[in-house]
């Protein structure tokens, strides 16, 4: 194993992802503002959904929002299609993650949300995708390449989704004046700091 090559590969991955995050930061626009305002004014809960690696990111974002006082759950769209749609109510907001915006597993959840007039926020790389076209607010990821040598493994795309979700959560937290005391109240079992 070539130590220099291994370190160089690691640096390349981090540089590709860092460049994409900087591009994302520079591309934040009115859609981001509308998403934050919608979440701040939320009367129900955030339903955050995605399939595969996007689902893993969605679950982490739901945990982050919940830990900062915004009720949120991860809803697997396949489970939603098989009875778990009952968790979704009129005052909720759906945040759906899909790099391609064409994950067919999301279609039942999108249809149900539209029928119930639930606001849909999408995080996707594809402005003309089915997901984007069915969303009230589209948070568009900038063009990017995945960080692996095949340009295939969800790496940069998942990093962008996670970073954008963190930016949403922290912006909401900032507006709500959520402080360390509030955070500590929601974390009685752990050390904070």
Task: Explain this structure.
- The protein is an alpha/beta fold.
- 49% of the residues lie in helices and 12% in strands.
- Helix 1 (3-27) packs across helix 7 (156-175), helix 2 (30-40) crosses helix 7 and helix 3 (53-67) runs parallel beside helix 7.
- It has a 5-stranded parallel beta sheet with strand order 2-1-3-4-5, sandwiched between helices.
- It is globular.
- The longest helix is centred in the N-terminal third of the chain and has 25 residues, at 3-27.
Main sheet: which strands, in order across? 2-1-3-4-5
H and E order:
HHEHEHEHEHEHH
Backbone structural class: alpha/beta
Major sheet size, sense and barrel closure: 5 strands, parallel
Strand content: 5-15%
- What is the radius of gyration? 17 Å
H/I helix tally: 8
End-to-end separation:
38 Å
Number of strand segments: 5
Mean pLDDT: 94
The 3D shape can be described as globular
Helicity, as a percent range? 40-55%
Uncertain stretches: none
In short:
This protein has 193 residues and is of the alpha/beta class. It is built from eight helices and five strands. The relative contact order is 0.17.
List the helices and strands and how they pair.
Elements: H1 3-27, H2 30-40, E1 46-50, H3 53-67, E2 72-74, H4 77-81, E3 93-97, H5 107-115, E4 119-124, H6 130-133, E5 137-140, H7 156-175, H8 180-185
Parallel strand pairs: 1-2, 1-3, 3-4, 4-5
